[in-house]
Amino acid sequence: MREVQLVVIGGGAAGMAAAVSARRNGVQDILILERNDSLGGVLRQCIHNGFGLHRFKEDLTGVEFAAKYEDMVREMQIPFLLNTFVIELKPDKTITAVNPEQGLIEIRAQSIILAMGCRERSRNALLIPGARGAGIMTAGTAQRYLNIDGYLPGHRIVIVGSGDIGLIMARQFVLEGCQVAAVVEIMPWSGGLPRNMKQCIEDFDIPVYYNSVIAQVRGKERVSSVLVAKVDENRRLIPGTEFEIPCDTLLISAGLIPENELTEQAGIRLSRATRGAEVSEELETSIPGVFSCGNVLHVHDLVDFVSEEAEEAGQNAAVWLSENRSLPGSTSTESTADPSPESVFSQSDLADDIVPAVSGDGVGGIVPQFVRRGTAKKEISFMFRPKNRFRDAVITASSGRDELIRKKAIALTPGEMCRVTIPAEKLAQASEIRFSVEGTMV
Amino acid sequence: MTMTSEKKKEELVCITCPRGCLLTAQETESGIEISGNFCPRGEEYGRQELTNPVRVLTALMRLQDTEKPVSVKTDRPVPRAKLFECASEIYRTHPEAPVHRGDILIRDLCGTGCNVIATRDS
Ligand SMILES: Cc1cc2nc3c(=O)[nH]c(=O)nc-3n(C[C@H](O)[C@H](O)[C@H](O)COP(=O)(O)OP(=O)(O)OC[C@H]3O[C@@H](n4cnc5c(N)ncnc54)[C@H](O)[C@@H]3O)c2cc1C
Ligand code: SF4
């Protein structure tokens, strides 16, 4: 069995940034495993701009952003295997992958960074009734058909869900000369970033139906129309509100789900709120030496924050490797037998040693889920999504009666992640970190 | 989005960076005042948006003799009113392969002064 110090699973924005950062922090023996035929992940199909403004202070397209990281990976000569699908991850950090040249590959890793990204919610997740003809696909699939393979999946398009991918595709289809007949959104607001609503939808006067669902898909061999209907406050269809929109393509843009089959298989604890691993402020999962970052940890809006998070994971893995200079082949069973401070938080019964982050009013999906007492970090950045749209909002974090931080925000929406940084010294006495959002709901 | 006389206050989302600040444009005696911007680029965006909105255009360009398209972008934003004209000019152009990231594929796109450059290798 091959031994590797650090294996990175997934070669998207997160995987590449994590590997580059681990190398910069002194890890020599790194291997990236990627199932596609090139590095880049979902960025390979994002030909639009709006990437890298934080990271590179430059307005790049997704394709260009990925190329920058791929250049770094190549310059640093970080090894990667393409067309290599990881099929199994064990709690002792052994990895099984397959690729067409080598067949079955078995690797024992000292530490692992999970960077598998996410996948799109499909039609089944939305329970759309009606015909099952051709012409129904996720927005990301349409994006791949068009931007990588070069063909248009349809000419008259209805988009269900207002996630960013759907909004971006709406604009591209319109510019390609297609008609985007409607965006249908079950919630009273958009699930995408406000800037995408502006530059992709409003700029082109594309009709958006809020509080609405697809009641039926019609068409035998191919979609020919959809019935759109209103829903009430409880998201139940209001009979009699249906109307028909002719179309040949229905795109589903209903959000993303972290791809955590491997994580689950390894017995790593997952968060119900984010659907990603539960991690400490070091981005370490419940298995010591296994870190998670990017969209597999929680769904990000911006690649800039993905790379930032991944660079941190890479650095933390490097520190972990230097502190746990365990013999090659040491397993997690051995490391729990000799509990280092790093492995303590993985045992939930030792709750005294961790400070949990808790969702208060209006808040969901906080990452990291907890902070270890006596953390070496000076400050800790938390990310979460507001549960509603708020105007003139105040974000607070508190422990019992003590307010740890208070931050104002003009407008918040679930389509946009909030980031709050708290100095570690403020957490020394805290029993929990409860985040809440207050403001006028709109 | 223009300012009308009866509507002296207008809200816009700054699309310059992902922060997406919610700007308020207020007409005053001394001209338009922008607030809500986190950085000076927001003010610039607000003024531009109210006078002549511009956008970076990204698209695909089909090459001669190859199936897979290359992705392209304008090196600067083009006037929003010219987006369709510019897009169809890009779709009409079929350069010869190979194309490399950074190559200029169209100069002075539709009289905008902007160039179209490849964002990936063919
Ligand atoms: C359509 C769209 C538009 C976006 N627009 C913007 C924007 O305008 N601005 C912005 O900043 N951000 C944008 N984003 C967000 C940004 O692109 C993503 O957040 C980021 O690229 C995610 O990177 P990642 O590495 O976490 O995931 P991914 O890119 O999904 O990478 C995961 C990689 O892991 C590989 N993998 C998964 N499982 C396995 C396995 N078992 N074995 C081997 N390999 C595996 C996958 O093949 C993939 O390459 C957009 C995203 C999308 C989808
Ligand atoms: S005002 Fe500045 S920070 Fe705010 S969105 Fe515009 S460019 Fe970004």
Please identify, by name, the CATH architecture of the largest domain in chain B: Roll
Q: Tell me which oligomeric state these chains represent.
A: heterodimer
Number of E strands of chain A: 27
Helix content of chain A: 10-25%
CATH topology of the largest domain in chain A: FAD/NAD(P)-binding domain
User: By CATH's scheme, which homologous superfamily of the largest domain in chain B applies?
Assistant: CPE0013-like
Shape annotation of chain B: elongated
CATH architecture of the largest domain in chain A: 3-Layer(bba) Sandwich
What is the helix content of chain B? 10-25%
Structural class of the secondary structure composition of chain B? alpha+beta
Q: Specify the CATH class of the largest domain in chain A.
A: Alpha Beta
Strand content of chain A: 25-35%
The top-level CATH class of the largest domain in chain B is Alpha Beta
Number of helical regions of chain B: 2
Structural class of chain A: alpha/beta
Individual helix count of chain A? 10
Compile the SSE list and pairings.
The complex is a heterodimer of chains A (442) and B (122).
Chain A: E1 2-9, H1 13-24, E2 30-33, E3 49-51, E4 60-61, H2 62-75, E5 80-81, E6 85-89, E7 94-99, E8 103-114, E9 118-120, H3 123-126, E10 136-138, H4 139-149, E11 156-160, H5 164-175, E12 179-184, H6 194-201, E13 208-209, E14 212-218, E15 225-230, E16 243-246, E17 249-252, E18 256-258, H7 261-265, E19 290-292, H8 303-323, H9 332-337, H10 341-344, E20 354-359, E21 363-367, E22 370-372, E23 379-386, E24 390-399, E25 402-412, E26 418-423, E27 433-441
Chain B: E1 9-13, E2 22-28, E3 31-35, H1 40-51, E4 54-55, E5 58-61, E6 70-74, E7 78-79, H2 83-92, E8 104-106, E9 116-118
Antiparallel strand pairs in B: 1-2, 2-3, 4-7, 5-6, 6-9, 8-9
Bound molecules: flavin-adenine dinucleotide and iron/sulfur cluster.
